[in-house]
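Lab notebook page, bench 4
Experiment: in silico fold of construct C2
Operator: M.H.
Input chain length: 190 residues
Purpose: comparison with the prior construct
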Amino acid sequence: MHTKSLIIEKATVLFQQKGYKSVGLNELLKVCNVTKGALYHHFPNGKEELLIACLQALNEAITTDIENIFRRYPSTIEATQGMIEKLIHNLETEGTITGYTFSSIVSEMATVSEPVRKACSVLYENIQYIYYVKLIAEGYSDESAAAIALMMTATIEGAMLLCLTQKSSAPLKTIAKMLPNVLKTFNTEN
């Protein structure tokens, strides 16, 4: 693995676990096993540039994973439940779902840094778009599909945060149970 990719991979985990502001330069250097010169060679503008690269890598990984899950299932309900089951499995076996959530970064940096806000926004937009496309393919109206995709993104992201703070998969299990009823309600309105 190239040094830059290794830095991004290790820094992403560190930022997700501790938050951007709690991670100091020395800790980054130690965890990534690089010198200050190597870090600044790959990220001349420093820690914020590294964070944006981490968010872009997360965007690609999360988007690809969700797209793969959604391709395997014929309906939005089944695909979403498959995705939630994966999140629950990760939480229950690994004790975390940090690879999927980046809300801590958003909450501490989106109002401070416009480039970070934009990188986070792109990721949320990509997730919503995956849901939207699946819903449109099922016959939902454009307006309903957009509204449901937004609701799904916010609900699942919120449930992940609750799971992490409660150290329980119960919020995701509740979402998985309730989502089919919500989708059926919107579908009858079409």
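Observations: The chain has one domain: 54-189. DSSP finds nine helices and no strands in the chain.
Next step: discuss at group meeting.
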